Amino acid sequence: MSIDSQYTFFGGFFNGLFTGNNTKLNADQPFSESFSGITLTIHRPNAEVPVDLGALIATNANTGLVANKLISAGASLTSGLRVQGVPWLSVPYFLQNLGAHKIMDMLVRVDFDFHIETPWYCSDIDGNISVYLFLFLDAKGHLKGKVDGQWFTFDGGGPFCRGPAQDALMSAVPGVSQQVKPILDQALATAASGKFKQLYFLPGNGTKTPGVSFQNASNDLALGLIPG
Questions:
Q1: Are strands 211-216 and 82-87 parallel, antiparallel or unpaired?
Q2: Is 19 exposed, middle or buried (0-12, 13-18, 19+ CB in 10 A)?
Q3: 162-175 residue pLDDT tens
Q4: What string of DSSP letters covers 23-34?
């Protein structure tokens, strides 16, 4: 069914808590989207193929794979995997390569928290690792995805352990990113054989159920795909 979805964000665009209000339309509507104030409105046609990236990426099995990769940095995973849409302008390494994407292109952030126990003379370390993915339709309309970059931040480690911890993380994060690529390919497999003319992002799980829902855009993200 064709749906008019209105998303009202309380923590910023595709960030934090939001409400989704789905209204069933009497007639099929072409895709369109508009943003006014803190509300994003998307007209979603009957033919839309929704893909809940959060549910496909943040599985127990995939979380375990990432946790194993962190061990090489002496770190332990302290959260589940979160999946979020982030405009290119807001990606932390944006200034390092301004022309890599269009300003309002949306990247997919897969992020998680970690903890490192340090010797008694240093404070323990808590941090976050983010892997950024770029999803697109190729010239034939097939859904593709690649790892675009990674970023990490942490607190603690003083007075003597920050440097060694940073070196260990610098070595481990590329391995974590390599692990995320097959996870992404697996997540996109459900739509890999299709041919599409439009790709767009939906906060949360992308439900089309009429009515109001409350979700967290920092934890889940869906794709909308229109066959072509």
A1: unpaired
A2: middle
A3: 999 999 999 889 88
A4: EE-SS----EEE
pLDDT digits (tens, 9 = 90+) for 179-196: 888 899 999 998 888 999
Using CA atoms, how far apart are residues 207 and 201, in angstroms rounded to an integer? 12
Neighbours of 139 (CB within 10 A): 5
Give the distance from CA 102 to its chain's centroid.
18
Q: Where are the alpha helices (DSSP H) in 34-161?
A: 53-57, 60-70
Q: Tokens 């009429």 belong to which residue?
A: 210
- Give dist(CA 154, CA 44) in Å, integer: 40
110-131 tens-digit pLDDT: 999 999 999 999 999 999 999 9
**Residue in 206, 200, 205, 54 with CA at minimum distance from that of residue 136:** 200
Chain centroid to CA 134 = 10
